[in-house]
Amino acid sequence: MNSITTATYSVHFNENAYLALNDHLANSNYSKIFVLVDENTHNCCLPVFMSHIEGEYDFEIIEIEAGEIHKNIATCTQVWEVLSELDADRKSAMINLGGGVVTDLGGFVASCFKRGIEFINIPTTLLSMVDASVGGKTGVDLGPLKNQVGVINQPQMVLVATEFLKTLDQRQLQSGYAEMLKHGLISDASYWDTLKEITGFEKLDKLIYTSVSIKNEVVQIDPTEQHLRKTLNYGHTLGHAIESHFLESEEHDLLLHGEAIAIGMILEGFLSYKLTGLSKNELEDIKKTFLARYPKTSFTKKDIDMILTLLKFDKKNSHGNINFVLLKSIGKTAIDIKVTPELLKESFSYYAE
After folding, report:
1. Domain final residue pick, 141, 167, 193
2. What is the three-class DSSP state of 320?
3. Residue 316 has what pLDDT?
4. Which of 167, 189, 208 is the last residue of a domain?
């Protein structure tokens, strides 16, 4: 499987991944190499990673607590303090071995430490392989508000080793699959048709490659999210607000990112039907596909009001306007669409039907 080249680095897959990494480490003369893991990847992924390393390196392992609730400045501060205590300098490097929390937070930590040290991302979840592997977005949450603090900064390379998917349960795989379904909805109707027919997760390599390629094509055209890159946020305006609400609510269990985004894609599909020309048949196709894979969630009026209040923190907003990415049809998008509060509430009614 050929590597995918972005503007500044390459995404390497499976057998090519460790060949590229070992070559890079042998030629980089890093003063120190730090490997950032969480509790899960420390146990399940680090031994596999280490078994592929050729040469003698004095790796320092830094472990953070697992989960979105720890993706915050407090955790960054802890990691920065450890880096300082272990005498990291500007010629040090960080390898982020984990899901989206580890790669987002680790990239941000590396980008800020001593005004920037090099980092390498090794995503270990399906979600992070198809989403965080391309684009250079790093950052952390501000309380329950998703990704409010961060920078766009590119890694030296990204390694996608699908052997790590064996460490995931079905729920985590489904969460990542939501982002792949999104790639079909925003850019390729035939890819959407292929994905919605997949029933298992045994052979995902080619599909992962396709999703990474789709995201890379978008980011190459619009690296700083001025226009086309906004399309990658389809389902995320409401989805992130739902995820944030469930993150801080004591009345609900946490939703995984993909689970919240799946709901967001149904809701924003309804908005697309009302505002940008998505057909009724395509809307029903979207709803049927997601509800077949993701458990239906109940929302009270209080939940909906609080979710809609959180929309004001969405990063696509400008000049006080909440901007949505919607679908003209499956595979074609419209950006910066304004939606009335009444229609937003109507979308939740449609979801509940």
Report:
1. 167
2. coil
3. 65
4. 167
